[in-house]
Each structure stands twice: as C-alpha cells, then as structure tokens.
TrEMBL record:
Xref: InterPro entries: AhpC/TSA (IPR000866), PRX-like1 (IPR047262), Thioredoxin-like_sf (IPR036249), Thioredoxin_domain (IPR013766)
Protein name, entry field: Thioredoxin family protein
Domain Thioredoxin as annotated: residue spans: 8-159
GO molecular function: antioxidant activity; oxidoreductase activity
Superkingdom assignment: Bacteria
Organism ancestry: Bacteria, Pseudomonadati, Pseudomonadota, Gammaproteobacteria, Alteromonadales
C-alpha cells in the first residue's frame, strides 16, 4: 500500500533507542546524536520505492557523514511475514547499494511505533537536541529520473546542522507501508 509521510512535527523530541545492526553491533540513538544532528531513515529491502532511491541514498548519506552529520537506518518490517527483509537479506542489500551507515533491525517494531514511522522510506532529520526538524523526501526526482534533482534531504540536514532548524517547506516522502505484525 502506497502511503505519504505526515507533515513535520517541528520540535518533537525523538525517543532514545538501542538496536543492533546486521552484524550484531549495538547502536544507541543518543550516542549517534552528534553536534550536527542525526538522520534516521526507516527503510527496508523489498520496497520498490527504497530500491529506486537506494543508490542516491547511499551517495547522499556519504556526503552528510563526511560533513559530520550522523546517519542510522532502521528496518521495522515484520520480516517473518516478509522474508526479503530478513537480517541476512539486509546485509546483502546494504552491500549491494554501498550503505556506509548502520542498518539496524527493529525486531520488536518498538522503534517504528515510537517514531510513528509510516512508510519506507521515512526520513527523520533531528537537530543536536534530538528534536525533529525534517520529515520529507530524499529529493524531487521522479521515478527513473535522476539528473537535475534537488537533493532536499541533503539541503535540509545541512540547514539543521548549521542552524538547528529545518526548512519550513517540506514535501512528504512516499513509499510502501510498514509491515506490522498482526498483533499490533
């Protein structure tokens, strides 16, 4: 099911979490919250929207990380019902697209719930106080279009790093719904 992210709730205080990456290393949101902010991307492997932006996401996040802006990706889908999103497949997906950020498994789906993640991709741009300042899309490129794009996520994260606040005008990200367990 195709969904759009809601409008940014400026100043929303992001809850801390600790999750493991696909190699079993633990990462805490608070420890990754640097003095230039933190980007948290809810993504998965099977979503065609994530697949279409994965190369650009890897390139854009490499630029942000080189500028001192930390990045975490969280996979909150129920991979028991969507085996393509299993931790083993996450490792393959991350390698295929050259992800240099930690790709974390939200096994209990508690982080996705706490953040109100709606779809994949769903981007949360936090300032150094852990306050939400961006909840928009990666860029303005249409499906299959890559040249001449406006890198909205990069621009927003740079603004947050510099000023602590994000752009007032933001366009929602669009993607596949998070696959919640039936007990949710």
């Amino acid at each position: 099911m195709l969904l759009d992210t809601p409008i940014c709730d400026f100043g929303w205080k992001a809850p801390d979490f600790t999750l493991q990456d696909i190699d079993g290393n633990r990462f805490s949101m608070r420890e990754q919250l640097g003095d230039k902010g933190l980007l948290i991307a809810f993504i998965c492997n099977h979503c065609p929207y994530v697949q279409r932006i994965a190369e650009r996401l890897a390139q854009d996040t490499d630029l942000l990380m080189a500028e001192g802006i930390n990045v975490l990706a969280v996979m909150s889908n129920d991979y028991q019902s969507v085996p393509a999103d299993s931790p083993e497949k996450m490792k393959v997906f991350a390698k295929k697209y050259g992800f240099n950020f930690p790709y974390l498994v939200d096994e209990e789906q508690l982080v996705g719930q706490a953040y109100g993640a709606i779809c994949t991709p769903d981007f949360f741009g936090l300032n150094c106080q852990g306050e939400l300042q961006y909840r928009g899309r990666l860029d303005d490129a249409g499906m299959g279009q890559h040249s001449g794009r406006v890198a909205e996520l990069i621009n927003a994260m740079r603004m947050i790093a510099e000023t602590g606040v994000g752009p007032k005008e933001q366009h929602p990200s669009m993607g596949c719904s998070i696959k919640w367990r039936d007990t949710m």
